[in-house]
TrEMBL record, chain A:
Localization in the cell: Cell membrane
Name of the protein in its database record: ABC transporter ATP-binding protein
Family the entry assigns: Belongs to the ABC transporter superfamily.
Superkingdom of this protein's organism: Bacteria
Source organism of this protein record: Kribbella soli
Automatic annotation (TrEMBL), chain B:
Domain of life where this protein originates: Bacteria
Lineage: Bacteria, Bacillati, Actinomycetota, Actinomycetes, Propionibacteriales
Protein name (database record): ABC transporter permease
Keyword Membrane: yes
Transmembrane regions listed in the UniProt entry: 20-37, 75-98, 119-142, 154-175, 182-202, 235-257, 291-310, 330-357, 390-414, 426-451, 463-481, 501-521
Length: 298, 528
């Protein structure tokens, strides 16, 4: 099966800002793909290119086996988009906006719409100007989820939702992925959301993908932190592969070790002789913080 | 006064955002007003000619009663419509910096900083009232520089500023009533229109010894007018206006206390749970219909007024060749009344081009507000999206012009007992303006397509054409300047001979520029 989305070497400049700087992104058909990155990393710009709203300066893009710039209209029948900052027509009710967007995409499933309104606890009769940010977002989400499409592009869709609604959102995404087999690109900077939903993730920073893979693969990039009390002199520990931030304090050591390199390091520790040992499990949280740091760009 | 904290900063923000528009309208209105002294002094050198010109019932409906035959009084009278424009601009400015801000949510952003809950309203009012004051001072100096008496010049400044102040306060109250900026504008403009109609009806009735003269006393526009600059300068009326302005502003602040940010006092009605719209055109109709209705009604009223006064103007022009000459420069037909009607048609066409530009700019409003994005992410192509709005920016002015033509034809036809003859002639003359209107709409499309961030520059089109029209009506102007305006190239209708060539050339120009703009739109990033 062809990839749902693939981009290679995307470059997009706004004046002197390099919004995208050689971005590669591959989303397989049927998966929920997390698209993570700090503010200003280029997530929205990427999604706009995937929608054919913005044209990349360099690089290639394929969406559902079409060119998003030249085949925009045909592709848009097969995908739905939820912007990060939803603005609606102040005089239209939420229900009117949902039906309008759905019909322009090719049709709304009435039953599905009613069910989603119920689950998201949204009153469709209110005028858009009376909606809070979260409610405007729900309007866009219901419009997207109620349409029969192959691909959903969601740009930080939960930034205005409360925890209860965030939970409903996860349920619905899981459903449309498992039951309906739809492909989802979920841009987010909330790790727990991505951990709960995504099969694979791409992490971008400053317009470039810094990591991409399944969550398990990424866990290999995490580090375990170790504190130990040793009996002998701690020679050669600092030279070992994968050891970071080593602190030595009178027979005690404290360091982080790449999860991939943990075996040789433990072997060296036992050679020296261990009096006591505490290890902290790897966390993705820490990995993301590390990748988000400015010097993480390779 | 914690509730006013941050007002100074907000005033600076408003001044920065309006740094072009605010000085522009002040200078423009002062310049036009001052230029009338020379122009109308030349056109009507004798008191008799002025009194005669101003005694026409139609003009009395439009501008009110002339207070006396001196040049200052005459010019003040002839400028009678400008204070209404000052009032309109003032109320729009206040609403734009209060309710529009709230509706867009920017107010919330500011409200969370150290900005008091009354600061936004106070800043909007302070800026608008201040701008009116500057306008008044400049106008007084300008009028005095034309050798008009100082006291009267100050008085006409107060007429302008007083009207501006009163309607700024009306705008402030309206902005508190509803959550929708559009509805607030509708209410405030309705009050302005009502005040104008009361004055027009009262003055007309007074002139014909009718029973409704008292209606004028209800109209703040009439209060300002009855200050009678250069006649007896009734300062106390200025105080009446000031007091009612203060009262309205107090009411606005009282109302503001009783509501939440973003909410109105009048409850928002619920809408339908299901929509019937399913196409870009249906959406565009929803977004444009209010504008279309307002312009169409306005144009019909304009047509009625001009159609109603046409016969009287004809009588007057027979006696005064200089007026005849003025209208011929505006429209240039041979027959007296026809040259008046043709001049009026050009004016109506110019106003229609403002509507065309306003409707075209809705595209930009949709784009920069972020509402275009979800639409374009559906199976709607950019062409379809643009076309759905352009239907209204091209055909909307056609409908409005048709209304003006029908109304003018009926009013004038009834007056001279020839509806069957005048109606088609004037409808044709009104619709003949369209190619020039479309050229200006096309320029707006092109600017939107290629330089979206500069979309507001599209207003330069109608502005330049209106200036050329105003100036060349008063004084003879170099040919190449007049040729800039597409309206110059239209045949003078009714009365003139209409050939196909100028229409076709203008249509071709509009088509080429408009299509180029659409190509630009297709090729650029969106939103940009
Ligand atoms: N239209 C634009 N004009 C200029 N700069 C832009 C524009 N859109 C995005 N940028 C810049 O490009 C970078 C990436 O932005 P964006 O894609 O919105 O990031 P994200 O969605 O990941 O927060 C930012 O530095 C942003 O300021
Ligand atoms: Mg973003």
């Amino acid at each position: 099966m062809p990839a749902a989305i693939s981009t290679e070497g995307l470059v997009k400049r706004f004046g002197r800002t390099h919004a995208l700087d050689g971005l590669d992104l591959a989303v397989r058909t049927g998966e929920v793909h997390g698209f993570l990155g700090p503010n200003g990393a280029g997530k929205t710009t990427t999604i706009r290119i995937l929608l054919g709203m913005t044209r990349a300066d360099e690089g290639t893009t394929r969406v559902l086996d079409g060119d998003p710039w030249s085949d925009a209209t045909e592709l848009h029948r097969r995908l739905a988009y939820v912007p990060g900052d939803v603005t609606l027509w102040p005089n239209l009710s939420g229900g009117e906006a949902i039906d309008l967007l759905g019909r322009m995409r090719g049709g709304v499933d009435k039953k599905r719409k009613a069910e989603l309104l119920e689950r998201f606890d949204l009153d469709p009769r209110k005028k858009a100007r009376a909606y809070s940010k979260g409610n405007r977002q729900k309007v866009a989400l219901v419009a997207a989820f109620a349409s029969d499409v192959e691909l959903l592009l969601l740009d930080e869709p939960t930034s205005g939702l409360d925890p209860l609604m965030e939970e409903i959102f996860r349920e619905v995404v899981q459903e449309i992925s498992d039951r309906d087999g739809r492909t989802v690109l979920l841009s987010s900077h909330i790790l727990s959301e991505v951990e709960a939903l995504c099969d694979r993730v791409t992490i971008i920073r400053a317009g470039r993908a810094v990591e991409s893979g399944t969550l398990n693969e990424l866990r290999h990039l995490t580090r375990t932190s170790i504190q130990a009390e040793l009996v002998g002199p701690m020679d050669g520990l600092a030279q070992l592969n994968g050891v970071h931030d080593l602190q030595v304090d009178d027979g005690r050591v404290r360091f982080d070790v790449d999860t991939d390199e943990i075996n040789p390091v433990l072997r060296r520790l036992t050679e020296i002789g261990v009096r006591s040992l505490v290890s902290q499990p790897p966390s993705l949280e820490e990995l993301f913080l590390r990748l988000y740091e400015p010097e993480a760009v390779k | 006064m914690k509730s006013l904290a941050g007002t100074g900063g907000l005033i600076r923000l408003i001044l920065r955002r309006d740094r072009v528009v605010l000085p522009l309208w002040i200078v423009l209105l002062v310049a036009i007003s001052v230029s009338y002294v020379q122009e109308y002094g030349d056109l009507f050198p004798t008191p008799e000619s002025r009194v005669k010109y101003a005694s026409n019932v139609g003009f009395i409906t439009l501008y009110g009663e002339l207070s006396g035959p001196s040049l200052g009084e005459f010019v003040t009278w002839r400028l009678g419509f400008v204070p209404v424009m000052v009032g309109l601009i003032s109320l729009l400015t206040v609403i734009r910096h209060t309710r529009v801000e709230e509706e867009s949510g920017r107010r919330e952003l500011l409200g969370a900083t150290v900005v008091g809950r009354h600061a936004q309203l106070a800043a909007a009012l302070a800026t608008t009232l201040g701008a009116n004051l500057v306008l008044a001072v400049l106008l007084a100096l300008g009028m005095h520089s034309q050798d008009l008496p100082l006291s009267g010049s100050i008085a006409i400044g107060i007429v302008y500023a007083g009207t501006g102040w009163f309607f700024a306060a009306v705008g402030a109250v309206a902005a508190q009533l509803t959550a929708s900026a559009g509805t607030a504008r509708g209410i405030a403009i309705g009050v302005l229109g009502g005040a104008y109609v009361l004055r027009a009806a009262g003055d007309t009735s007074a002139h014909t010894d009718g029973p409704l003269a008292w209606l004028s006393h209800l109209s703040p526009i009439a209060w300002a007018q009855r200050i009678r600059p250069y006649a007896d300068n009734r300062w106390w009326l200025g105080i009446v206006i000031l007091a009612s302005t203060v009262a309205l502003i107090t009411i606005a602040f009282q109302l503001a206390v009783r509501r939440d940010v973003g909410a109105g006092l009048l409850p928002d009605r619920l809408g339908p749970a299901d929509g019937t719209m399913g196409s870009p055109l249906a959406l565009a109709w929803r977004l444009h219909r209010g504008l279309l209705a307002a312009w169409t009604v306005g144009f019909a009223l304009l047509g009625l007024l001009f159609g109603g006064v046409a016969e009287g103007v004809g009588d007057m022009m027979r006696d005064d060749p200089s007026i005849q000459e003025m209208f011929q420069r505006m429209g240039g037909a041979a027959g007296l009344i026809d040259s008046f009607l043709a001049g009026v048609m050009t004016l109506v066409g110019l106003i229609a081009s403002a509507y065309a530009v306003q409707a075209t700019l809705r595209l930009r409003v949709e784009e920069s507000s972020g509402r275009a994005e979800p639409v374009l992410a559906t199976a709607t192509s950019r062409w379809q999206w643009a076309a759905s709005h352009l239907v209204f920016s091209l055909l909307g002015p056609a409908v409005a012009l048709l209304a003006a033509g029908v109304a003018e034809g009926l009013a004038y036809g009834v007056a001279i007992g020839d509806v069957g003859g005048q109606l088609p002639r004037l409808i044709g003359a009104a619709l003949a303006q369209l190619p020039a209107v479309w050229v200006l709409a096309a320029i707006a499309i092109a600017i939107f397509g290629f330089f979206p961030q500069a979309s507001m520059a599209s207003w330069a089109g109608p502005t330049v054409c209106i200036l050329i029209g105003l100036v060349s009506a008063g004084v003879s102007t170099a040919g190449w300047i007049r040729d800039i305006s597409p309206f110059t190239h239209l045949p003078s209708l009714p009365g003139g001979s209409a050939q196909a060539a100028p229409f076709l050339v203008l249509l071709a120009i509009a088509l080429v520029i408009g299509l180029a703009g659409l190509v630009g739109l297709r090729r650029r990033d969106l939103p940009a």
